[in-house]
Amino acid sequence: MDALTAALKVAASGLGAQSERLRVVSENLANAQSTGTTPGSDPYRRKTISFVSELDRTSGSSTVAVNSIDRDPSDFPVEFQPGNEAADDKGYVKMPNVNVLIEMADMTEANRSYEANLQVVKQARDLISMTIDLMRNQ
């Protein structure tokens, strides 16, 4: 397998991984205020994603894949909201362990990584196209 095809394969795996990362971050942001539905019940628990490097035997290059999507075990913050349906007998509600600032930073990083991989795909495609044009003109 040639280097350009290997570059495409590596970039494609990066695109897939960052796309999944963006999906997880979006889900966390969408549920940043999702409390439980009964008194004292647990709210939405933040999801985390981890990646693993894999060897692509056909190209001999390292690609990336989603290793796991887990739940963040950190404690839930509590807020005093006596009117909330999820409030305990003292009026406190467990809130999701989602920090919007962290999620936004993670989203920005994932978006930039996605764009970088997309640029690699575009460059490899252009180089393949130029190679084909050179071969035609010989």
From TrEMBL:
Q: Name one GO cellular component term.
A: bacterial-type flagellum basal body, rod
Summarize the subunit comment.
The basal body constitutes a major portion of the flagellar organelle and consists of four rings (L,P,S, and M) mounted on a central rod. The rod consists of about 26 subunits of FlgG in the distal portion, and FlgB, FlgC and FlgF are thought to build up the proximal portion of the rod with about 6 subunits each.
Annotated ranges, domain Flagellar basal body rod protein N-terminal? 8-35
Which PANTHER family would you find in this protein's record?
A: FLAGELLAR BASAL-BODY ROD PROTEIN FLGC, FLAGELLAR PROTEIN
Domain Flagellar basal-body/hook protein C-terminal as annotated: residue spans: 91-133
The region called Disordered is annotated at: 64-89
What is the name attached to this protein's record? Flagellar basal-body rod protein FlgC
Q: Which UniProt keywords apply?
A: Bacterial flagellum, Cell projection, Cilium, Flagellum
Protein family membership: Belongs to the flagella basal body rod proteins family.
Record keywords: Manganese included? no
- Gene that produces this protein: flgC
InterPro entries hit by this protein: Flag_bb_rod_N, Flg_bb/hook_C_dom, FlgC
**Can you say where in the cell this protein is located?**
Bacterial flagellum basal body
Q: What top-level branch of life does the organism fall under?
A: Bacteria
GO BP annotations, alphabetical order: bacterial-type flagellum-dependent swarming motility
